Amino acid sequence: MVQQSDIPKVIQEAQERLDLVFERLSVCPDTRQRLSLPHRVVEAAIPVRMDDGSLQVFRSWRVQFDVTRGPGKGGIRFHPSVSRDEVIALSFWMAIKCAVVNLPYGGAKGGVRVDRKKLSLFELERVSRGYMRAMADVVGPDVDIPGPDMNTDELVMGWMADEYDVIKRQRSPAVITGKPVALGGSRGRTAATGEGAAQVLDLWAERQKKDNKTIKIAIQGLGNAGYYFACAAERLGFTVVAVADSSGAVYCDQGLDVPAIYAHKRKTRELKGVSAENDKHTVESLSNEELLALDVDVLALAAMENQITKDNAKDVRAKWLLEIANGPVAADADPMLQKQGVTVLPDVLVNTGGVIVSYYEWLQNRSADYWSAEQVQQRMQELIRSQAELCFELAENEDLDLRSAAYMQGIKRIAEAMDARGTHAEFNPE
Ligand SMILES: NC(=O)C1=CN([C@@H]2O[C@H](COP(=O)(O)OP(=O)(O)OC[C@H]3O[C@@H](n4cnc5c(N)ncnc54)[C@H](OP(=O)(O)O)[C@@H]3O)[C@@H](O)[C@H]2O)C=CC1
Ligand SMILES: O=C(O)CCC(=O)C(=O)O
Three-state SS string across 335-380, please? Predict the structure, then answer.
């Protein structure tokens, strides 16, 4: 029997968010116990020779939280504050997320405690290859398939894929997703997370009978997820009026020229200094806090976890909050937002475009049959919209908030798989 004190605090907190779902669902109580502890946690030191000749040792983790529905799946995060607990929590949410959109995967996640911005390109390559050397024995196409996350991109995935091949002395493209197309990556993976989030928002607006043209969006985070979300949202007729990165935010009520702003950011590495020349209209500089409190229709959070907490939830004036990042709304802020009438579209549904296209990449690698960008886009849209539709209907029929409905959709599928494996042979709800 798992003791409460054995359960990592982050998982106790995660499970508290699921209380309502477990109460409502007639699944075996053992499911909750099974989801209390990670299946496997691997911690490794990565020694790296720096360009100046010194040696630095980076801490890293790979966690496979649950593998009942299939091999582990989840990205690798490079961040100076990443911790064992954070990776455990993220791997837990990956298990729920893959089940919400019915991918044949469990949940996993990885992390390296490193500040990418302080590394040269060669140092970044050595850290990436070092991570794969440390984890090569615990990942694999049928075991655990890493992919990109914060501060890791196709460059990093490509080096890791190559390192795995060198270690195993064979070509195994299906071991990792988010690779460059030249190495078996899928067309459309780079934009997929943002694209998928825009599709969920579009469907939600349609159900609310709102015209996209009347909807103004502020976005926190202008990296992979945030930038491609902005592009897709504009294509679908929404207006992006504000964007933020870690250096600050810019705002223009008539709408921003996001590609021009992104080009500036890529050149200078920050939003600071975006001026009127970069944009169709004059832009105003804001702080991140001001962006979160803007009077817009949609606040899209595409940066980090815990951006809206009990301390700033009261300042949110947007009607809809789109969670593109993982865990951007802290548990204690949820009831406050509900009370204020803010609808939260939850991360475990909204940001699944990325992992869906990662799944398609894995399928393409395994069949050696490669799809066009249009095929990828069409299949991803169909899948994310149909699973979002199911979730929205569940919320309506069961009178649940959207987060609880998404959790219910995911947990039910995990519980069914646990049951089918015979783990709960003795369980009979009748
Ligand atoms: N990439 C993917 O496929 C997926 C990503 N996600 C989630 O989406 C989120 C973003 O990931 P991704 O886009 O890949 O990461 P990136 O590293 O590409 O981008 C992160 C962005 O957030 C900004 N940022 C960081 N801290 C802050 C802050 N305190 N305030 C405002 N902006 C900030 C960064 O600013 P700066 O550029 O200045 O550093 C950057 O623009 C993460 O939670 C990730 O887990 C979820 C599913 C899939
Ligand atoms: O494509 C992947 O496997 C990464 C997905 C991921 O890490 C996420 O959805 O948070």
Answer: HHHHHCCCEEECHHHHCCHHHHHHHHHHHHHHHCCCCCHHHHHHHH
Q: How many CB atoms lie within 10 A of CB 379?
A: 17
CB 355 near ligand 2, within 6 Å: yes
In ligand 1, which atom is closest to the CA atom of 328?
43
Residues of the chain with pLDDT under 70: 1, 275-281, 423-430
Domain range annotation of the chain: 39-171, 191-345
pLDDT of residue 271: 85
C-alpha 230 chain-centroid distance: 16
Structure tokens, 110: 């990885």
Please report the pLDDT score of residue 430 as a whole number: 47
Q: What would the CATH number be for the domain defined by 191-345?
A: 3.40.50.720
3-state secondary structure 60-78: EEEEEEECCCCCEEEEEEE
The topology (CATH level 3) of 39-171 is Rossmann fold (3.40.50)
> Taking the mean position of all CA atoms in its chain, how far away is CA 311?
24
- Return the pLDDT at 17: 82
Cβ pair 141, 362 in contact under 8 A: yes
Which residue in this structure is represented by tokens 């804001």?
Answer: 286
Q: Is the ipTM of this complex over 0.85?
A: yes
Residue 423 pLDDT: 60
Residue among 73, 109, 200 to mutate when testing ligand 2 (max atoms within 8 A of CB)? 73
> 352 CA distance to ligand 2 centroid (A)?
8
